[in-house]
Amino acid sequence: MATSTLGFALLGLLARKPRTGYDLTQAMRQPIGYFWSASHSQVYPELAKLEAAGYVNHSVIDGPGPRDTKRYTISAAGRHILAEWAAKPAAPATARDEFLLKIYSLWLVEPARARELIRAQRAAHQAQLEHYEQIAREVESEQIDRLRDPTTPEFSSYATLRRGLSFERHARDWCEWLLGALAADPEPARSADSPG
Amino acid sequence: MATSTLGFALLGLLARKPRTGYDLTQAMRQPIGYFWSASHSQVYPELAKLEAAGYVNHSVIDGPGPRDTKRYTISAAGRHILAEWAAKPAAPATARDEFLLKIYSLWLVEPARARELIRAQRAAHQAQLEHYEQIAREVESEQIDRLRDPTTPEFSSYATLRRGLSFERHARDWCEWLLGALAADPEPARSADSPG
DNA sequence: TAGCACATGTAACTCGTTACATGATTTG
DNA sequence: CAAATCATGTAACGAGTTACATGTGCTA
């Protein structure tokens, strides 16, 4: 009964603090959602599997709705397999970038439309970069000490944040380069009509 | 009968030149494989769907084995939907980076083992970077003219290559930063023993 | 009182991976 | 002659998305 990657994502969250399935689903949008995602329909069955394997436990707390509200806690065994999994090299990821796939066929698109597409993508990267920069300012001012200690969860979170910052910068800059390459727009056949 | 992303990957390859299902499967490892991948068991059924939709045609050519060898060619309709798809913004991709997920739980790993993990990752990025640099040198010396014209397939391929170069550099540099952060290794409890 | 946040589940479907299956041609 | 390459398919399974289903408590 091997734990799935999603299981390790959930354990990674529960290793920081106990949460409900609902909380975990929310967390799969924002902190962890930057590098792994899942919907609630995946989370609840996965929690059941983790509990069957002895990696988490739950206690019933008061809450709304027709069913029990369950707060999940990681077990010692859960913490242990999580640490073991984290220390082993990740399997080479199969890249899936739909945007790059579009770029691969961009030569079929009129340069004007292509520029529109890239501008939108650049804006998206810029916005995400600013979002990360905001978070970075906050954690850097509030948790300076813990960010330096690699045995704190804050260190790990900060490391992933730095990666996000770096990624968005490189992606934005590449869009910038591509816009420049599209703007040059030599179109040899019409060179007599072009202004520059 | 909406064409899947894999379908557009295959059309993107066929828009450059006709190929067999086998050729396409190989291409899903190397040129396109850098940002999209698929195994032959996905490729063959997808080709049948594309043909049913009128986006590709095949002709039987001589070849080995118990079944016909088919060479697929993109149709005018196929070229058209491919260009339309490429011009429209990509749906925000759900990030799935198992390595970053491990980093998120790296605080549970002994710093010595953590450094080992990051060093291996850095080496992988460095190797991939050098591979891309080799390809870049080749295409830059052989196809300088076409690389400047955004209506050539060479331009599109080169744009994705530049993205690969930029990505690997940023990823390697981030590993470098993380190694530095792990090497500092303050371990406050032992501060009396530490040199700094 | 309408809508949203909280809270948990199942079902149907699509996408992707791994394994099963066959067989000719070329190269060592 | 053994192994790799060329070449095409199907089947079983797992992972992920979307839709279905239910119901409370708070706020506008």
Task: Provide an overview of this structure.
The structure is a homodimer of 196-residue chains. Chain A is 60% helix and 7% strand. Chain A is mainly alpha-helical and 196 residues long. Chain A has two domains: 83 residues, Arc Repressor Mutant, subunit A, CATH 1.10.10; 84 residues. Chain A has a three-stranded antiparallel β-sheet with strand order 1-3-2. In chain A, α2 crosses α3 and α6 runs antiparallel to α8. Chain A is elongated, with a radius of gyration of 23 Å. The N and C termini of chain A lie far apart (66 Å). The C terminus of chain A is likely disordered. Chains A and B meet through α1, α4, α5, α6 and α8 of A and α1, α4, α5, α6 and α8 of B. Chain A binds a DNA duplex (28 and 28 nucleotides) through α2 and α3.
Topology:
The structure is a homodimer.
Chain A (H helix, E strand, L loop, with lengths): L4 H10 L4 E2 H7 L12 H13 L3 E6 L7 E6 L1 H12 L10 H7 L6 H32 L1 H4 L5 H32 L12
Antiparallel strand pairs in A: 1-3, 2-3
Chain A binds a DNA duplex (28 and 28 nucleotides) through helix 2 and helix 3.
Task: Sum this structure up briefly.
By secondary structure, chain A is mainly alpha-helical.
Task: Please supply descriptive tags for the structure shown above.
8 helices; 60% helix; 2 domains; 196 residues; 3-stranded antiparallel beta sheet; homodimer; Arc Repressor Mutant, subunit A; mainly alpha; DNA-binding; disordered C terminus
